[in-house]
Amino acid sequence: MTTPSTLADIDRLYAAQGGLTYGEGVTQMEHALQCAALAEADGAAASLVVAALLHDVGHLFEDEAEALRIDDHHELSGAEVLGGLFGAAVVQPVALHVAAKRYLCFTEPGYFDALSAASKASLRLQGGPFDAAQAAIFESQPYWREALALRRYDDTGKSEVSSGRTFADFAPLMEGLIEEAAWAAGRTRLDQQYDEAPKAGLSRASSTLAPDASEGDILDEAARVTQPR
Ligand SMILES: [Fe+2]
Hints:
Blueprint: H1 7-17, H2 28-41, H3 46-54, H4 64-67, H5 74-83, H6 88-95, H7 97-107, H8 111-114, H9 117-125, H10 132-139, H11 144-156, H12 171-199, H13 215-225
Helix pairs in contact: 2-3, 2-11, 3-6, 5-6, 6-11, 7-10, 7-11, 12-13
């Protein structure tokens, strides 16, 4: 299975592997749809709805029997995959959704007891409940609150009653966020060009640019002076 680099790749991945169950009473596809539907009903941001939909994508790359036996860190492999397409608001809650379970086991009486049998079993493999120091570190992570919300959807989205939703329902949301992330990455590249321009001896004062040069002119000049000679 190759790493998805487009929305079509993600579609194909869920179509091919979404039937796995990982010891739960629902398939990965139905679990994903239920989690996304719960986030949507909760009024969550688009990024969190998509994080809920794709939070277990790391599972789709593993051997199911093996994953039930060892801690495969599917949250990290999933975040890595999603990092090629989405921004931090999607990626971080996914990366933290296992830590969120360990955090809630420490902070919330009764949370552990309400987990599914499969979730209790995987908790052992994942290192068990956090202690106070680990919980404090968790609270210092960006998007930790979103990760807690995602965890609630994850724990609830295991109903035997179908969500009635399809993966395609969430395509426009995913598409919008992929475009947003691509635009932000392009913006970062432009900012880097601005940063590199002075290092290359370019400034409004010292360059051949007119004092009222436009941003486009400055970028053109930056590209010219930073060209290898
Ligand atoms: Fe999950």
